[in-house]
Amino acid sequence: MKDHPGLDRPPGDRDNAVGLARFVLSSMVVLSHSFHLFVRSLQDDPLVGLTHGQYTLGRVAVDAFFVLSGFLVARSWAGSRGLGDFLVRRATRIYPGFLVAVLFTSLVAAPWLAARGGMPRPVVPSWAELLLPALVLSYPELAANGSVWVLSYDFYYYLLLAAIGWSGLLARRWPVLAIWAASWGVYAYWFTSGVEMGMYNQHPRLLTCFLSGAVAFAFRGVIPLRWPLFVASILVLGLFAAGWLPYRVWPYRVMSLVFPIVGAYATLFICFRPGAIAGKLGKLGDCSYGLFLYAYPIQLIVVTAYRPKLTPYTHFLISWGLAIVAARLSMRLIERPAMKLGRRERTKPREVPAPHFRPAAEPAAVVGGG
Questions:
Q1: CB 188: neighbour CB atoms within 10 A?
Q2: What is the CA radius of gyration of the chain?
Q3: For the chain, what is the domain count?
């Protein structure tokens, strides 16, 4: 880390906390859902009171996820051998695990819950009703898996970033920043005008966070990862979370608008300026996607079966442990084999632009040795 205290990292770099961050963010979503499913309200979520209702643990985790996703997907594009290779990488990473989780939710979790009154009895879907929405990473029966609604957003943004990369704009930096500024401007207008943004109308928020990561990648050679900047970012987030401007002066709580800027920096700092221990814990990230896919239906099953014996925290711990087991199985049996298959299909590599980072100088030769 001392040689590369920035976002521009050498190929194959493993000295980062991306895996650990993914695992922690997934776990935050599970904890937030435990309050929602057990208490049937998000008012007891630990962040609701601290941020004056602006954020829950789940919301801040999703925003941070999209920032990190924007950066990593842009990096994936830069390291791909073309559009086809990029799409194969994305498809083999996302689709197999998602499809198996959809089958588990539809054919196991939903019928079990319906039989015990945990949710209305679902209509058994046909294969077309099940698989066709899955082509855009969508799942219609969110009552049984309320986490996966964000995946369709990620899918659309993968395609958008592929178009930006294919056009050459990603390498030119300033057009990417202009696209982000336009997205942030729309988000600010929607936010301050009181437009209702439900689950299926989150593009201004999530696209802005995703593009924050893409902008960070485009400017990776000039963005330093410095502790003073990180502390300043956290302080700014804290000020806006605490309601820095009172309602009589400014009628909005705008932590959501600040997050794609200073929150994005804080997220990437945590991911790419870790200590040695954080880097070694990166393997935890292997099961973060499966944890995200399976936790919600498992949480519903646990709370339906054992509600009188649980608290929100015991509900979280039990569900979290079971979901980790499911996630590990998904990684070993589904996701990892699919990714290996995708790597076999790759063609001859294309030339990519030289990295921005400066490699360490070679040691000088010893002259006149005895």
A1: 16
A2: 22
A3: 1
Residues 179-224 have pLDDT tens digits of: 999 999 999 988 888 766 666 678 999 999 999 999 999 999 899 9
Instruction: Report pTM.
Output: 0.87
Least Cα distance to 203 among 191, 194, 219, 216 occurs for 191
Reported as type and span, the H/E element at residue 273 is none
Report the C-alpha gap between 110 and 130 in whole angstroms. 13
Q: Tokens at residue 138, please?
A: 């969508």
Range of the domain at 291: 18-344
Question: Does any domain span residue 364?
Answer: no
Can you tell me which residue has the tokens 């079971």? 322
Cβ distance 224 to 6 under 8 Å? yes
Provide the 3-class DSSP secondary structure of residue 315: helix
Residue 368 falls inside a structural domain: no
Rounded Cα gap, residues 210 and 234, in angstroms: 20
d(CA 99, CA 363): 51
Helix (H, G, I), strand (E, B) or coil at 6: strand
What is the three-class DSSP state of 224? strand
Angle, vertex CA 78, rays to CA 76 and CA 83, nearest 5 = 80
CA dihedral (152, 154, 157, 158) in degrees, to 10, reads -110
| 136-171 residue pLDDT tens | 788 777 788 889 899 999 999 999 999 999 998 888
Asked if the structure places residue 273 within a domain, the reply is yes
In this model, does residue 81 exceed pLDDT 80? yes
Q: 168: burial class by Cβ within 10 Å (0-12, 13-18, 19+)? A: exposed
Those residues whose C-beta lies under 8 Å from the C-beta of residue 316, and which sit 6 or more positions away, are: 30, 31, 34
368 φ/ψ sector (left φ>0, alpha ψ -120 to 50, else beta)? left
Identify whether 12 is part of a domain.
no
pLDDT for 234-275, tens place per residue?
999 998 888 766 555 565 678 899 999 999 999 999 998 866
Phi, psi of 213 (to 5 degrees): -65, -40
Q: What's the Cα-to-Cα distance from 361 to each of 155, 364, 365, rounded to whole Å? A: 41, 9, 12
CA 24/CA 15 separation, integer angstroms:
17
341-362 average pLDDT score: 49
